[in-house]
Amino acid sequence: MLPVSPAERHRVVAEGFGALTRAVDGTWDAPAPVEGWVARDVVRHLTGWFPEFLASGSGIVLLAGPSVDDDPVAAWRVHADSVQSVLDDPQTAERMFRNPHTGELPLADAIDRFYTADVFMHTWDLAAATGQDARLDPDFALQLVEGMEPMEQLIRSSGQYGPRVEVPAASDPVTRLLGFIGRDPSWRPPA
Predict the structure, then answer these.
(1) Residue 128, class by beta-carbon neighbours within 10 Å (0-12 exposed, 13-18 middle, 19+ buried)?
(2) Which pLDDT score is estimated for 41?
(3) How far apart (Å, rounded) are the C-alpha atoms in residues 26 and 124?
(4) How many of the other CB atoms lie within 10 Å of CB of 66?
(5) How many degrees, rounded to 5, is the angle at CA 3 between CA 124 and CA 143?
(6) Where does residue 169 rank: exposed (0-12), middle (13-18), buried (19+ CB within 10 A)?
(7) Which of 4, 70, 90, 137 has its CA 20 to 30 A from that of 30?
């Protein structure tokens, strides 16, 4: 079970993703489950969208690491460490995040809700692309899918998620989450 605190949850989820990056053995250009992406693009996505989102809603500028094209492992490490330092800062508890689409909420909660959850979901993408086991926490997967299902129409209209992939009703929470976010849980890289 993942920790409940945003800082500790990020630490565990980011380290899980980081372990996958360190275990990639030359397959950074392998196809990923997201159409048009390769494994490297999963890291590029996570290190690319969040810095601007965070800066625009909080004024916090994350430390930039090397290019994902040059060193995806180091790019992830620098990025994840920078996010973790924000969450570990005692002043973060007092800061608010403001965004016209999400409203105002505590900074740590915003990072947890929008970013850590994204890292969690994309962990499966990197694992699948590189032939690794993601070992996603089923309790957190259930929390995410149950939180997103009531907002499905809004989520789909954002363009951030593909069409739902139907999975059997009795599927485990991770399979349900993958299907909801538009992933075929049986996807494997082309041979």
Answers:
(1) buried
(2) 98
(3) 18
(4) 14
(5) 60
(6) exposed
(7) 137
- 51-97 pLDDT, tens digit each: 999 999 999 999 999 999 999 999 999 999 999 999 999 998 889 99
The pLDDT value recorded for residue 165 is: 95
> Over the Cα atoms of the chain, what is R_g?
16
Check pLDDT > 90 for residue 191: no
Burial tier of 33 (Cβ tally within 10 Å: 0-12, 13-18, 19+): buried
CA separation for the pair 32, 30 (Å, rounded): 6
Higher pLDDT, 96 or 156: 96
The residue assigned the tokens 């692309």 is 129
* Beta carbons of 119 and 134 less than 8 angstroms apart: no
Amino acid, single-letter form, for residue 54: L
- The two tokens of residue 171 are 């599927």
3-class state of residue 94 by DSSP? helix
Q: Is the confidence at residue 35, as pLDDT, over 80?
A: yes
User: Measured between alpha carbons, how far is 83 from 54 in angstroms, rounded to an integer?
Assistant: 10
